[in-house]
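Marked as duplicate of an earlier ticket. Keeping the data here for the record.
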Amino acid sequence: MYIEEENGMCRQRELMERLKILEESGMISSRVSAFCMDAAEIILGEKEDADGEKLSMLITHLAMAGDRMEKEDDREMEISPEVLEGVRQEAVYPRALCVSQQILKGTALKFTQTEADFLTVHLCNILM
């Protein structure tokens, strides 16, 4: 258990550093950075041994999406309906959807359905 906690803390530090770089470079606000750290804590609470690379990818995507939502920027890529339907067939999908809803409930940022779907797809990838 100690090693898992240590690895989880290591991942959190790495994510904090990544978010700090994005914030200091003006790519995201402190509000978006804090939201992403909260999201990382929720994800690591759900899966302590989450793959660090997949988690970093998700948090980076979430930071960019959060920035777009904060700026009310509607330029977003659509997720392929076929991909989304395939993900919905995965056994882990209900769990990923629940975690996604928990993450999005914790922010005043208003995410589009497309961004929420992308988050859920990333979460399926992590929770498998």
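See parent ticket for discussion. The longest helix spans residues 2-24.
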